[in-house]
Amino acid sequence: MKKIYLLTLLLFFAFFTNAQVTVQGVPRNDIKPNSIHRNELKTTTTVTDFSDIQYWVGTGSKKAAFVVQWNDGKNPDALVWGFKWDGNATGEDMLKAIAKADHRFYSLLYQGTTFGTAIGGLGFDLNGQGTNGLYKSGNTTYPMYPLNGIINTTAYDFDDYTAIDAANDHWKSGWTTGYWSYWVKNPTDAAFGYSSLGASSRVLENNSWDLWNFYPGMVDQPISTTLTPVSAYSSPTTFTDGYFMVNEDWYGHTNGSVNFINNNGQINYRVYSNANNNQAFGATTQYGTIYGDKFYFISKQAADGGDTQYTPGGRLVVANATTMQKIAGFNTIGDGDGRSFLGVNEHKGYIGTTTGIFLFNIDNLQVGSLVPGTNGKGQIGNMIRTSQYVFAVTQSGGVLVINPNTNAVVQTIAGAFYSIVQAKDGSVWGIQQQKLVSINPTTFATLEYPIPTTKYFGDWGAWYAGRLTYSTQQNALYWINSVSAFASGTQIVKFDVTAKTFNENFAAVPGQTGTYKQIPYGAGLRVNPLTDELILNTTESGFGAHYQKNWIHTFSNTGTLTNTKILNDYYWFPSIAVFPDNNAPVVKSTFPSQTTVNSTTTIDLKTVVTDTDNLAIAIVKSIKSNSNTGVVTAVINTNDELVLTPQGTGAATIILTFNSNGKLVDKTLTVHASTSTLGTAEVKKLELGIYPNPATDVLTIKTQDRVMSTVVYDASGKVMNTQFNNGQINVSTLTRGIYILKVVTDKAVYQEKFIKN
Questions:
Q1: How far, in Å, CA of 279 to CA of 260, rounded?
Q2: For the Secretion system C-terminal sorting domain, which residue ranges apply (predicted)?
Q3: Positive/negative CA dihedral, 264, 270, 274, 275
């Protein structure tokens, strides 16, 4: 009887001992305690002092060390970070702070359990490619990505997770096939001791150590003799040495995002969200552009209701173009959904929507009113700014030509256009299904050039920014051929603007073998203004999970494929590549600082200024100031010529402003004027009469010559919106003041002042 009693007591003791083993505070009777006790022996490591730690997270007077040991055979196998704080902090606080700060480190957590937060998995991106993410139960269709370094689960299902980049990441997770054991060392302790508590219950002490040691196969592992300090994480803070890829992102799951590809090939994901505490854009971000020092992101809707990770930013988000720091966000941009944005001048932008073009005040960051005459034509597509006008593609109203000074539509070019660009030589080109249309940038006369065999389709039903693009270094255009409005082709087409020739086999879209092929997505194709390389983004055909596969290809300007980058598996749906604008325009040294005029004199401004980031021909020229209009008048005509007309004898200081995509440079010109010699232009003025002067509604021109064109300028040299018909100019819409009328006849050029009452 005593033997049975003794046996029973021993069995009870063994069961009780097993039951007392805890993992992160959770009692486990499936783990033997003897192996744990062996690990309580003192361990000598190469990191024995806090001065060896290289990467510190947090601020404060207290400090602790955080160690992770994966036991996966990869080097370095055990990594150490430092954590600083004031007041009270737990082991959980330290882990989360490091996961948020170091974008290489990520975790799988089960939060809110009876025992606090359970640590199910820990990972580290060894090759620095940002491929942090997990598959659950082998489900590659819906990968899981960390937010602030954390992927959450709601069960002890840690064994089901694998790393997306298993070959190049540290990653271990588990609960029944392996588990993370927790070890702590306080300042008074001689060695690490096994912690029966979880990270939520662990109260950190100043100069303490926390170590997470993974036991694969439930087999205990000795603490490593080498703890390798993690190098400091360097998150990009400026974005100038590469290019951006704006993403629609995964509709129904996440709001829009933007990635940045460094010149060294590093892909930095969600750079706007990382810089702005997990804020994002609106739903289906379709367009982005840099103007001046700001980046404008346009989304179709204000927010994606399915996004539980990122805070939506609205249909228009404005950010600092260099740092990605948020400046402003707008849910409403007029009466419609977002389509495009165009910087018009340093004070004003145009927002393209589904219902028309709306003004945007760049100075005050305010959405304004509808530009008259731009509604009722369906969606607004892409828009371009030449030195004189704005050209905007519409869904059903052709191309609208807008005077940017008055916001008035001055011309409509009929046709079913999909996109529009300006070439290096200044010519404007619209594209239709099977023809290019040349548009004169000042007279708006058109010429058609049929595309020989291929076709080009846009998709107004699911609008994107168009696959027609241009080179700033060659006088050439490029686009991707189409099969239909819903299917792209496999060829990049080149058009030589000078020779007016087509190369429909300039380059092939890669990945055309196998069942599922690469297809361009979104705008698909853009040209790097600095390198003249073509950037092509593709995804995989087949719908569904195939859209997780995304590539970015680089082609030389001769059509050679030079580089391919593979993005993390995710439903990015890239919409458009955008290039930083780092350089201001430069006025050539040959431009004079002073000049002498005794008759009307013109100075051609088209070639006096350059910009390595943008089209030189599109630089906007304007008169900033004129110190003495009584001595000389200065206007810039539609041919980008500075016209100086002496009004008396003396000197005047004229400041010209050159605006290249929102970046400005001024040039001062001193003009010495004299009217002592009556020039030809002055004699011709005697043959021209205008009346009444002052005028209220109509100004009549009287001349024996045939009038070819008329232009009215205000005192600053800006072109005013007026109509000439049967010898008369309607000036009723002008405000009171002094204006200059330029009349070009078949025999001479005249300029006269008149007053508007």
A1: 16
A2: 690-755
A3: positive
461 is written with which tokens?
């039903």
Cβ burial, residue 357 (10 Å; 0-12/13-18/19+): buried
Is it the case that residue 14 has pLDDT exceeding 50? no
User: Amino acid letter at 127?
Assistant: N
Instruction: Mention the CATH class of domain 680-756.
Output: mainly beta
DSSP string, 551-583: EEEEE-TTS-EEEEEEPPSS---EEEEE-----
Same fold yes or no, 586-673 and 680-756 = yes
Gap between the terminal Cα atoms of the chain? 124
Instruction: Quick: pLDDT tens for 245-265.
Output: 999 999 999 999 999 999 988
Q: What sections of 677-717 are H helices per DSSP?
A: 680-685
CATH class of 586-673: mainly beta
Calpha distance 654→632 (Å, rounded): 9
Who's near 103: CB < 8 A, 6+ residues apart? 125, 130, 132, 149, 233, 235, 274
Pairing relationship of beta strands 561-566 and 178-185 according to DSSP bridges: unpaired
pLDDT of residue 44: 46
pTM over 0.85: no
- Mean pLDDT for the stretch of residues 169-193: 94
Tell me if 739 sits within 8 A of 715, measured CB to CB.
Answer: yes
Place of tokens 């927010």: 303
pLDDT tens profile 639-664: 899 999 999 999 999 999 999 999 99
Domain ranges of the chain: 44-229, 586-673, 680-756
Count of alpha carbons within 13 angstroms of residue 20, beta-carbon side: 9
Mean pLDDT over 121-143 rounds to: 89
Mean pLDDT, the chain, rounded, equals 90
